[in-house]
């Protein structure tokens, strides 16, 4: 996952321009046998894992954002942005890598999953309205959706929405 995150970090793409990132994600998901639907909200995609355990027709969505910001990176890191004026300064490279990790783990356990997991890779989270476009595509889970956000100071926030009126928030340090 570290290699994937660093690759995405070194090749940032702005809102609705996430062609390379989307291709990388789709190729990984397909290599693990995960069904992929491309071209949602221009550069977004959804991976689908259909659990093989009987008893539930429910679905849940897990989301990661993929876009970068129009910022010059001056970190000097070996995996720093190779694209002038673009940087993953908000952690979306990490979000994408984490959801890929979750996808691989869930696919390995699909025999014990009752229901469907939708892995939503969202473009244009940074002011580009990518979430609204994806929402119109009706790809979320009926049991709610999860997402998260990380910060450079090591603090991470996660949220999970259990449905229309139910929401649970949690923060994690470290």
Labels describing this entry:
174 residues; 7-stranded mixed beta sheet; 26% helix; 27% strand; disordered C terminus; elongated; 7 strands; 4 helices; alpha/beta
Architecture overview:
- The protein is of the alpha/beta class and 174 residues long.
- It is 26% helix and 27% strand.
- It contains four helices and seven strands; from the N terminus they run H-H-E-E-E-H-E-H-E-E-E.
- A seven-stranded mixed β-sheet has the order 1-2-4-3-5-6-7, with helices on both faces.
- Helix 1 runs antiparallel to helix 3.
- The longest helix is centred in the middle third of the chain and has 17 residues.
- The two termini are 18 Å apart.
- The relative contact order is 0.22.
- The C terminus is likely disordered.
Summarize the structure in short.
The chain is of the alpha/beta class and 174 residues long. The protein has helices spanning 2-10, 19-31, 92-108, 130-136; strands spanning 35-40, 44-50, 59-65, 116-122, 145-150, 155-161, 167-173. Helix 1 runs antiparallel to helix 3.
């Amino acid at each position: 996952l570290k290699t994937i995150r660093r690759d995405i970090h070194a090749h940032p793409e702005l809102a609705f321009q996430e062609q390379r990132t989307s291709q990388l994600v789709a190729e990984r998901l397909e290599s693990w046998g995960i069904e992929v639907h491309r071209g949602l909200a221009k550069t977004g995609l959804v991976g689908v894992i259909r659990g093989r355990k009987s008893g539930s027709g429910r679905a849940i969505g897990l989301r990661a954002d993929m876009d970068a910001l129009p910022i010059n990176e001056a970190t000097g890191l070996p995996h720093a942005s190779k694209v002038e004026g673009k940087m993953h300064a908000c952690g979306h490279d990490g979000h994408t890598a984490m959801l890929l990790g979750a996808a691989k783990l869930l696919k390995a356990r699909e025999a014990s999953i009752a229901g469907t997991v939708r892995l939503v890779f969202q473009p244009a989270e940074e002011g580009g309205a990518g979430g609204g476009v994806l929402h119109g595509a009706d790809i979320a889970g009926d049991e709610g959706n999860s997402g998260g956000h990380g910060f450079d100071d090591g603090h991470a926030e996660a949220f999970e929405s259990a449905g229309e009126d139910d929401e649970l928030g949690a923060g994690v340090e470290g």
